[in-house]
Amino acid sequence: MAERPLQIGALALSAGITALVLGTALALAVHAKGLSLRQADWSALRFTLTQAVISTVFSCALAIPVARALMRNSFPGRKALIVAMGAPFLLPVIVAVLGLLSIYGRSGILNQTLQVLGLPTVSIYGLQGVVLAHVFFNLPLATRMLLNGWQSIPAERFRLAETLGLPSTFRQIELPMLAAVLPGAVLSIFLVCLTSFVVALTLGGGPAATTLELAIYQALRFDFDPGHAAVLAGLQFVICGLAVTIAARFVLPDGLGAGLDRAPQGPKGGAVDAAILIFAASFLLLPLAAVVIDGAPALLRLGPAVWHAALRSVLMALASAALSTAAALSLTQATAAGTRWVEAAAMLPMAASGLVLGTGLFLLTRGYLRPEDIALTVTILVNALMALPFLFRLLLPEARNLHRIYDQLAQTMGLEGIARLRWLTLPRLARPLGLGSGLAAALAMGDLGVVALFAGQNQATLPLMVQRLSGAYRMDEAAAAALLLVALSFSLFAFCDLGGRRAAA
Amino acid sequence: MKPIHLALAFLSLAPMAMAETPVLNVLTYDSFAADWGPGPAIAKGFEATCACKINYITAGDGAAVLSRLKMEGAGSDADIVLGLDTTLTETARATGLLAPLAALAPNDLPVPYSDADFEPFDWGWFAFVYDNTKLTNPPKSFKELAASDLKIVIEDPRSSTPGLGLVMWVKAAYGADSANIWKDLADNILTVTPAWDAAYGLFLKGEADMVLSYTTSPAYHLITEKDATKSAAPFSEGHYMQVEVAGKLASSKNQTLADQFLAYLASDAAQAVIPTTNWMYPAKTPAQGLPAGFETLIKPEKSLLFSPAEAEAARQAAVEEWQNVLSK
């Protein structure tokens, strides 16, 4: 079997990921005095699940018409819009929150307009704000995942349906695709929302909006009760495991067969599609515009320390993305070839709390290694790990298609190893690989969780710099550094995404 | 896992070689050691007297400093821990990691202060800060604030030291009646943020009428930005204080040097750096006085402060009370 080494490699990688994610939690669990959950933890669990479910439903339900409209229509700036729509997902959380408040806040554009018109104002603070912010973050991700699905439908299918005069291409062709892609998107977004904490608390309006992740934070900060943090982290893993299991039951092969895979246009949507696209674009791009406007004035006043941090962040992001992409490629190939357990391991990091991972690594390495010495390595590694589930989800549907369609052919031709990767896998997966590695790089750029625990004074990354500036009243410079961060993240993302799409075209 | 081990092993080799000059490791929070914080000037000043080098090890904020101290335990590289406040000192002391001070330097705190292990280096009064061009008649007490329809942003006491300070403030001012104050304040609280910076950012953006910060916050805007539009509202119940302290670790191999550093921290040279870098009051007013602009700040007549032991005893129940009342 040509796939033997692949399977063994993927299983070893899965074991490594599981060891890292669960091992760090265990490093905390050994401090546990008991496995009790408090009353407040149950409320946190309830709120966590409520907001995650509602946010996921809205993000994915809205993504369907948006992705469909993007797929069906060609208009000037379509490509730019697709790439730009990726940006919200890449924003550091607090920057995105401030951007959203510029539009929907108490003194934001929306409420000012409502006041001028003599209409009652609306409040963003509460569950509605949490959901709004999560949709803002995740609608683009869901849209891109679905768009990839639509683009993987061979154009011949639509033409065939037209020739045969089928009444609904949606039911015959698009629905099966959605059935294959949607569970993955739902799962990813549910898991992103599961570990949300800054958004939930800041826009939630008070301690009723406490998520499990905040409870973990509390357990590790003032209380310093690593055991309790481990119990809460364990609860997150259980939910993640359940979600992965449930989603796996719904994933069906789309049964569309092979084609010449040119991007389809499908039937045109007209005015409805135009309205959907205008709504989605303004929903996603207005807060971004606010971030640009807030940050631009102080951009030239940023000191050399900020620029050094920016360079450090870019290099670390590239390293993380490379690591994560290689891992995801290997894991998806193995999953597509039917290796068990790999999928669960690949999704596991999504349920991991950054703080638990960081604290666990800290406790495991203390006494052997100085935190400052391993800060950069740990940050690269953990960011690669945290981005892995996204990449995995993006690659998996197409890796499955690829395997189903070409595996026999490749085996017949004796196409194996590097040659198979070079001539078959990489070209066929170029589009999701570009998108995925771009996402991984951008996510690593924006991460703040782990580096803050380890970094020494002169090892600050750009997000840490933003935090340090805003913690010292320097809100203008913080906004400018945040803009720089967004611009760099977005450039990395766009570079990879466009590269992937060019290679695929 | 293999590449990780290789990388870890490789990186751990790098900094082994160190010069003969003794290095004093100071564990502190980020903004103390930042370029614009007091850290660099204090390090420079001390290094000129000690033939040693100061190395700051940083954690996010006071609470992060404490959790780092607990994580590292007796194996910590740190000689000095700097930046805890008096609501955290009791739990830090309970770790047994601290060594008693050689001497407690005199201070000018508005309340008597004495502690065997921790020396104060700066302090401030918590206060609600507002924009005096938008709010002309600010509330004069928690009760007036609760009766108004003003919106405030506060920090979460479970993740932020100012947030914890506010909970202590209400407890110190109202004791057993504190739950009712929180009940009345509930509809004034626009939202709760995980950290001070998000709360202050929301306030500057115009989201809230007032934000929980310090009486010294307006000095930043006045001195750095020449902006006199920010004021702190004096409350008749008195103002709770945050006293930031430094201590010496028992595991330190540089006990004498650590004593010298703590003595320098209390000196005029170091104390004069504090006001316009940390935007707090120096623990001992330097001979040259406070910088111009500080005389414009409100001076609460009544200062509230729990002793470290009282604060530790009250903390958990007070935070739970806050959480229960506001979760309804």
Describe this structure as you would to a colleague.
- The complex is a heterodimer of chains A (505) and B (328).
- Chain A has 505 residues and is mainly α.
- Chain A is built from 22 helices and no strands.
- In chain A, helix 14 (304-336) crosses helix 19.
- Chain A starts with a helix and ends with a helix.
- Chain B is α/β, with parallel strands linked by helices and 328 residues long.
- In chain B, helix 7 (161-174) packs across helix 14 (308-327).
- Classes of the chains: A mainly alpha (505), B alpha/beta (328).
- At the A-B interface, helix 1, helix 5, helix 10, helix 11 and helix 16 of A face helix 1, helix 2, strand 2, helix 4 and strand 7 of B.
What's the helix-strand series of chain B? HEHHEHEHEEHEHHEHEHEEHHHEEH
Radius of gyration of chain B: 21 Å
Percent of residues in beta strands of chain B: 15-25%
Number of strands of chain A: 0
The geometry of chain A reads as globular
Strand content of chain A: under 5%
Biggest interface and which pair forms it?
A-B, 65 and 70 residues
